[in-house]
Amino acid sequence: MNIDLVQAYAYFLSTALLVFFMLAYTYHLYISKKKANKDYEKYSDMMLYDSISDAPVEKFNSAKS
Q1: Which residues, in sequence order, are CB contacts of 55 under 8 Å at separation 6+?
Q2: SS (H, E, C) the chain
Q3: Are 57 and 42 a contacting pair, CB within 8 Å?
């Protein structure tokens, strides 16, 4: 087993692992939106609409329980 074969296996394994993590994250976002827990698209819009006069993404409750 030479170093080229080890590098090929490591490259394939790391690529497969990164693809798995990307798909798992996409699935997590889809399920979160479907359950109506969090809509992460609203949070991504914060970057586009960042004026002081824009509406907040979520209501902020300053009172501590």
Answers
A1: none
A2: CCHHHHHHHHHHHHHHHHHHHHHHHHHHHHHHHHCCCCCHHHHHHHHHCCCCCCCCCCCCCCCCC
A3: yes
At 36, phi and psi to the nearest 5? 65, 30
The span from the CA of 54 to the CA of 48, in Å, is: 11
Q: 33-56 pLDDT, tens per residue?
A: 888 777 777 777 777 777 777 777
9-46: burial string, b at 16+ Cβ within 10 Å, e else: eeeeeeeeeeeeeeeeeeeeeeeeeeeeeeeeeeeeee
Distance CA 64, CA 8 (A): 55
Quick check: pTM over 0.90? no
